[in-house]
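dumping these here so i dont lose them again. two proteins, back to back, each one seq then structure tokens. dont judge the mess
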Amino acid sequence: MDILLLIMMIVSIILIVVSFFLPDHTKELSDDVEQLSIQMYQESFQIKKRLKVLEEELLIPNPNDLDKQSLSTKKPNQIIVGQVRLLKDQGLTIEQIAKQSALTEDEVRQILETQGWSSNE
């Protein structure tokens, strides 16, 4: 019995010593994960950079041009046209109509002109 216990102690000591000299697989895995993470961040940065360039060049027009286009090509909602017409019938000025209808004065003038009203009143 003592011999068996002694053999088990020696084997355990040998295994402990050997475990110190074996390569650490978790360190390798940790390094691999770190490298993969760095690559992902770099690729993500490159994609965002390319997307920003694409948006700037192709997809998003100049905001000043967009405002001019929206005034000339946007057809107002019939409810808003009715509201502007009703407010004009009540004798309100263009400035007052613009405040109450959440439109710009130019939009109010454009609506009134399309409805046949004189906008210089």
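---- next one ----
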Amino acid sequence: MQKTLNLVNAPAGRRLAAWLVDQVVPVVLLAVVSAATLPAVLSATGSARQDATATATLGLLAATVVSLAYAVWLWGWQASAGKTPGHLLLGLRVTSEEGTPAGWGPILLRSVVIAASGLAPVVGPVLMLLSNLWDTNHQRQGWHDKVARTLVLDVHAGRDPLTTGGLRGPSSFAPEGLRPGDPGHPETGLAVPPASRWPAFSPAGTGVPISAVPGVTGTGAHAPAPAASAVSPVPAASAAPAPAASAASPVPAAASRPDAPAGGSAPAPGGAHGRSSSGYREDRVVLVGGAAAPADPDEDLGATRVRERPAAASAPTALRLCFDDGQSHELSGSALVGRNPAAAAGERVDLLIPFADMGRSVSKTHLHLAADPAGVWVTDRDSTNGSGITPRGGERRRLDPGRPVLAPVDSTVHFGDRSFTVSAP
């Protein structure tokens, strides 16, 4: 049974083993015919030897015809279903680069390249079938796969794209507009009730504050105070006096807010005042106990309050990011994650983390990360398939593009169909 919904590359050793299994039928046929006829040819003399030779020739011809028929059958089975006896036995599938049946032409080309490597007996085919070990793109393709534009996948460890919607997988069956993590999306293991989801952020300029946090009542200790509009502020001369906070709904002071990270306010990758290099506003959100809470509304009013970072937290402790494909990275500054991440004009980052996602659910530049003593600030860079964070023991929350959200230590960050966990080094 598969262990993950991700696509998994087939190990080189199993690719070679599957090919060897597929050669058993023709090798056994030729061996049986040779064992049955060759002794008679060698022991016979005169006209008897001629008869024995003719019998051996007919036997070898019959074995060759059967072997050719077997080869054509293998060709068609791989072209339509990605299977051979070896692949079926070892849990492998051959597909196109789109995760669809490879087709007759690519499978023929792939087989011809392998056969041509036989010009160097034994060594040639072995090197060809193990050549994905030298593939710099996360060992996806051998030389013959690059020529034929095919993939070999392990369907015991991951999913079979031929039966699950190609490289995009369950996403291809999702209603238009749904992203991974949304209720009703095929990849959402547990639908999140609409009432428990983070309320929609008000559009810039409307002046409508967020008034509720999922899982926190209006009288709780952590209920946020309504934020003043930063877009159309009320002039000081005509401003109405602010209502006094009642004992039933206290608002924690900024210095003692439980949702404030140890390192201070969220970073704003790409520039000051919470705007990214691409120009969108970056409101700051902190995950608290599995639910999101808005950042201090005073943080955007730079002239009103100046908060100094404690000296002990001036240099964030390095954190370790453990990705679901086995790679890990140490993060002590900022980083970009994606298929081929690149900083925007004028943007400076400390680390680029390329992630070769066979399912193509990961955007070119998917996430911006910034280390913090309390975790990692994660910003979705307007990715195609979205991002989310699952705190330890909490529910998965989808990220809104451009809003940094703190992923605490031991939480899981999802980007497209892939993920990594945040842990102490």
